[in-house]
Amino acid sequence: MKKFILFALAIFMVINAGAQNKNGNIKGTIHDTKHEPLAGMTVSVANTKLATTTNTEGVFNINHIPAGSYTLNFSGVGFKISKTDIVVKNGETTVVSLELNESTNELKEVSVRSAMLKKFADTISNSGTRLPLKLVETPQTIQVITHDILLDQQAQNLNDAAKNMTGVVSNNMYTSYTMRGFLNSYYNQFITVDGYMGNMYQWTQLIQLYNIDKVEEIAGPASALYSVGSPGGVINMVTKRPLDKEMYSFALTTGSWGLADISADLTGPLSKNKKLLYRLNVGYNYANSFRPYQFNQNLVIAPSLSYNFSEKTSINLDYTYAENKTRFGEDHGGLLLMNKDSTYNWKGVNYSFLFNSPKDFDNTTNNNITLRLNHKFSDNFQLTYMSRYIWSRVSSAEHYGNYYADNYLTALPDSIQRNYDTWKDNPYNFQNSVFATLSLGHKKIKQTIVAGADVQLYGDSYNRYVDGAANAVSSVNPDYSGDNFNYAINSSTYVYDVTDQTRVLGAYLQYLISLNNKFKFLISGRYENYFYKVRPNSADNYTSSNDTSSAHVFLPRFGVVYSLTGNQSVYASYCQSFQPQYDNARNSGGPFPPQKGKQYELGYKGLFFGGKLMSSVALYSINYVNILATDPADPTGVHEIVTPGLLSDGAEFTLQGNIKQFSIITGYAYNHVVFANNSPLGPKGGRYDNSPNHIVNGWIKYALPDESKIKGLSLSIGGKYVGDRVGEAANQHFIMPPYFVLDAAVNYNINRFNIALNGFNLLNNKYVLGYYASDLMVQLGTPENWKLSLRYTIK
Q1: pTM score > 0.90 for this model?
Q2: Which of 264, 380, 645, 696 is most enclosed, with most CB atoms within 10 A?
């Protein structure tokens, strides 16, 4: 805390003085056809490097310009590019007012961010419909975590960004979240990149954000557009795109547990005509941990090229390489014991005990290459094609606590039974998507049709997993010297050694009609066909049989939006999710019907204070069916049965944006998810795993006014509250306590430099994120920690 106070005092002592320039100035406002101000619009002076963006009131300023004649270019996502000629005179301010028309085509964002502008709300997204719709006109809850929020909070990975998402809570130390009451993990394919399936990271990796511009949460089922997915929702990561203006940004970060982070973000034109553009993001970080022996090292290299053949045709080629090395790919958590009265000793959770071993390791490399082609045949018809190929290499070995040991311990045991596993995996994912957009009609009746098809092949070219009994360790004085990975394979060892592939074919049609700018009706449907095959690679495999399974499903979607005013609307929608049964072997009782979610949602959205502040309210009900559980009548534990499923009801409220010197993002979510009937997973009416009833998040920032002597200084504070959760649904008495985490930051801009100090969990609360397959092992929240960064940007 002393570091924080000293740093804040040092900043207050800095005075930023500068000489006045007697050249001319340009000041202007940009609004849409409804005379609503447009924030985040790019304004550039042709044939110069001068550029800026509009603030939340649609206002822009370009100062100290030599007298002369100039052309101003205006652009922004969802609006037609425009330009105007002006004359600048010495000592005078040229005033410009411009109205931008909406575009029915998806535009490429060309933006340069002002050093002082901090944008906390985006008002347009194409993630919900593949169309650049205003969020107030989209019949679904979509929240955008902007790039400025990520920078202000020094977000390094997706977990850092997700704490701002309404109704989203992390339930372990990896990339796994609860959304609207449902667990989203790697196997749900709930993460998309630039609006398409295909996340190259494994679930135990922390997804790095070096090449990510913003993150979007699409709440609720989205399979009608995105194919396979969870009923809780989708998280879409939008990558940084090449810009036609030069920009170079470099950052150094240090922090708790020896954190060292260095990154660079470079972009600009490669040709004089600015048709060929590039962007290069490179990042490296290393840190130890509050957990013994643990460390995490990441390297990301992400080059991107785009070429604009003409105003109608463009092509983008992206490549991302990621490398991750860590001691524990899966940290199995701390040790939880019970009190003598059979209650859980949450205050006594042992943070330093390891179920893992100092001899564990996990090394992963990931590769992603993506090609995108856009062609406009006319102002009303365009075609988009995307091809993505992902391949990874995983090599890991670990120890962990035996899931089936006696978990109800009231005293420190002499020994804790453990298992070991080794894993080598070569996963891949190949996807092709194409869709066409056709716009029809006139001002009073507008119609837009989107038709597309997807082909996805993913699986493992090699996947060998070995699991068996390992050395036990004392919980008082653990001795790991005998740990190794040369245990003999015997009859009790589980071996999974296979090659598998999943093929998903899908086609969808979406129809959107707008009537008098008051009503919007959305109707869409998707047909999905799924085929899975697996074959053993060796005689060690737990079964010698080849296996296949298949399923098909039709996924409808309906939505209606009524515009109360130009900036306020109410909506209703119905949508579904679809998830194949990956554990579908015939010797387990399969094939089984796919998991499906059905959601009904009502909501309200509004823009206030001239479009500067955005709010949304949503009420929803989800019915999730065809969940698999172990058959209690099968003594071998191999056979599975289909359970009736889960019912989830909830409400969400989000408020984010800017009001004068304040920026805010906050949310509240109530969720109640229970079992529809008695099943091996849990009792009827019983709560589901890791699903809190209440989640509150908030972050508020105050930036000192421009006329202040210490212009450029901002102060922020925020946090997250998560209510209690059932750790294990079959044991409704295993209740993980609620927790609150408080964060704060000081940020200072001076010329091209930005200095930021962020503190996390400032109250140093001990808390539990979730449990790990057994109530003996609990996932631990991060204690108090700090980050100090220096960023230098040339525009």
Answers
A1: no
A2: 645
